Amino acid sequence: MTTFIKRGRAGLVALAASLVLAACGQQETPEQQASGQGDAPPAPKQVMEMARQDLPLDKSYPSKLRSDDEVTLVARVTGFLEQRHFEPGEMVEKGESLYSIEPDLYESVVAQREADLESARAELSRAQRDANRFQQLLSQNSVSRQQVDQAQAELNVARASVSQAEAALANARIDLGYAEVTAPVAGMIGLSEVNLGNLVQPGTTLTTITPLDPLEVRFQLPQNDAFALRRQLSDQPIDAVTAWLDLPAGVEGERLEGHLDFLGSRVNEATSTVQATATFANPDAQVLPGQFVRVHLEGVKRFNVLAVPEIAMTQGLMGPQVYVLDEDNKARARTVQLGEIAGPWQILLDGVEPGERVVVGDPAGLQPGTAIEPQPFAGIEQIAGEGAGKGAGKGAGEGAGNAGQQAAAQEQKQGGEASVEPAAEAEGDAGP
């Protein structure tokens, strides 16, 4: 019995000693942490001085492709459709024959009009001789003045008949030309709307020819973008503004390049937009008219703006913010008003002033009042790459830290279970 009591007292003494040591450790840890924080060196961060600059924008707008030279062919004469000289869907050249509408009928009309013209010319020749003869006889007082006037009138009628016959012949030749329907433009021809053997009349739709190179897009610019672009075009030609289209999935290549070729001169009252057009070379017919696309403009700029790299932005309680250095090189959070994104830059509308120093390095871990060791701004490319690398490293580090914490928690759990078992055994030994 004495042995069991001694063992119980020894266990209680050991437990009390471990609790005292744990309490002492908890009291010392905050002091050590506070001491460590006070001795933390300034964090090296890249810093840039705010200055106004001109930034290019990559703007995109919804639009629809169209072929500006697309033509719908219609019949110009009446007759039966005798021949079709193409296959639907093939490429045709300008001037190529497409349909024949009873050409032999109109050839005979031309021949008749040519004969009418010859007859009129012969009559004119006779009237001219008669008028000359009567004029000579008048000088000899062999004919009256009335007969001379009559001969002159017949001459004038003969001349008019020749002009009329010439006009009729020209009209017959035009109809003969319309009997052979030719392609007014080069492009891809569609389905024939009329089968062979059918009677067509002037205005009957035959088919459509769609040129595929180049193609045009018409789109609407917000008035602010249009005003900025018009300001920019005062110093450069309109085709200096580069435009490009994203190609749909499954199409070879990445994009089609073109240029802006028209900017409207008035604002649409209903939409507050300005119409613009751009033209794109499409030699391989990678896109087709009627297709909805987004057109990108690369030459658009924003002038005299303040901007920081996107990586410098953080989210605070009052909204988007950046860290500005004070006179003691300590970071101070500053809420800002955001504008447009210009590539890797974020345009700021309000919140900072020219001449202020802004932390443009990775803001992870920064707090208001953090001491900063300013480093020169190394350029937007390095900042963007540095941010991506730190983001990846941070993710990997957090993953490893989480795994370590889970392993430690598992070991602690197992150690706790193991410590309970001896206590239970001792309790069982002391029980009797």
From TrEMBL:
Q: Does the keyword Coiled coil apply?
A: yes
Q: What Pfam families does the database record attribute to this sequence?
A: Beta-barrel_RND, BSH_RND, HH_MFP_RND, RND-MFP_C
Q: Where is this region: Disordered?
A: 381-432
In this chain the Multidrug resistance protein MdtA-like C-terminal permuted SH3 domain maps to: 304-361
Compositionally biased tracts (Low complexity): 403-423
Domain (Multidrug resistance protein MdtA-like barrel-sandwich hybrid) ranges = 70-210
Q: Where is the Multidrug resistance protein MdtA-like beta-barrel domain?
A: 214-298
| Listed Gly residues bias regions | 386-402
What protein am I looking at? Answer: Efflux RND transporter periplasmic adaptor subunit
